[in-house]
Amino acid sequence: MRTNRCLAAGLGLLAALVVSYAILGPLILNQIHFRTSSSGLNQIRGGDLAALAVVVPVCVVVGVLAWRNHPAAPVLALAPALFAMYTYSQLILGNEYLKLPGNVERYFPLLLAMFLVSAAVVLLGWTQIVPGNLPPMSGRLGRGSGILLVVIAVFVVVGLHLRSLVDAMSEQPAGAAYLDTPVTFWVVKFYDLGIVAPAALCVGVGLLRRYLWARKPAYGILGAYVLLAWSVAGMAFSMLLNGDPDASVAQFGGMAALASAGSVFAYLLYRPLFVMAGSAVHAPVTASGRGREQRSLRRSV
Predict the structure, then answer these.
(1) Backbone angles phi, psi at 227, to 5 degrees
(2) Measuring CA to CA, which residue among 86, 97, 84, 94 is closest to residue 20?
(3) SS in 3 state form for the chain?
(4) How far from chain centre, in Å, is Cα 132?
(5) pLDDT tens digits, the chain, 301 residues: what are they?
(6) Integer Cα distance of 152 and 200 in angstroms
(7) CA 267, CA 125: separation in Å to the nearest integer?
(8) Residue 239 CB: number of other CB atoms within 10 A?
């Protein structure tokens, strides 16, 4: 009970920090001046709007569930916390310090607190999840979720980054995103190509091959990536709305489609957590880490 109260407090604090940052940031009061380009500011505004509209309500709802000691709370807490770790650490690192004007360094304690609180929520949630207590995942849902994660990995690499990466690695790069804000460019490339895409591919393949270890991270990764997809879609929409020269209708459409598909699979994945499902009985796990799940006739308490 104490751990879940800590989890609830962490989620509530994270929601309050996200709201405070969004109010102070370029979306509302514009007191935080990031050292980035006008295109980067458009993306930050779109991401902040998505965080207020989606991430904050998720934190509040899951926090209430944790306070009530609901067994689904630790699983659901992973998504918004992973989103916050990814997003707000980039807002610290991805600035053109000593090159472009701004004052973001004055708000370093706020952004650092957001990262630390979200990391604590991830650790609290992760340590409470017992894979054997998770509801059974049907073969169709496992395959669908696995395929979606693989598609996300491919889209991130090919659809979002490949072209600009090839340009940046050429002898005479011409991309405005790289030439104007090279630090931001490489920070985003490192996160997405070094963390987001490999994690999605690894867990996606694990689900497709029905490895038991893939089930636990799938809940956190799929949920977090859905939130990230909506955030990136918000960024793309903000760029289109402000007439950004780097705006792309195709990117907005692709991210909105991925976010919508991911939302459906996240709903299907999380729904059994709220149902009085039968407890899962696992067959002996083979040396490869696979095992078949069977639903017992005994209903869980």
Answers:
(1) -65, -40
(2) 84
(3) CHHHHHHHHHHHHHHHHHHHHHHHCCCCCCCCCCCCCHHHHHHHHHHHHHHHHHHHHHHHHHHHHHHCCCCCHHHHHHHHHHHHHHHHHHHHHCCCCCCCCCCHHHHHHHHHHHHHHHHHHHHHHHHHCCHHHCCCCCHHHHHHHHHHHHHHHHHHHHHHHHHHHHHHCCCCCCCHHHHHCHHHHHHHHHHHHHHHHHHHHHHHHHHHCCEHHHHHHHHHHHHHHHHHHHHHHHHHHHHHHCCCCCCCHHHHHHHHHHHHHHHHHHHHHHHHHHCCCEEEEECCCCCCCECCEEEEEEECC
(4) 24
(5) 566 899 999 999 999 999 999 999 999 999 999 999 999 999 999 999 999 999 999 999 999 999 999 999 999 999 999 999 999 999 999 999 999 999 999 999 999 999 999 999 999 999 999 888 888 888 899 999 999 999 999 999 998 899 999 999 999 999 888 999 999 999 999 999 999 999 999 999 999 999 999 999 999 999 999 999 999 899 999 999 988 888 889 888 988 998 998 899 899 999 999 884 334 333 444 444 454 444 433 333 3
(6) 7
(7) 19
(8) 24
Cα angle, residue 109 at apex, residues 106 and 112 outer, rounded to 5°: 125
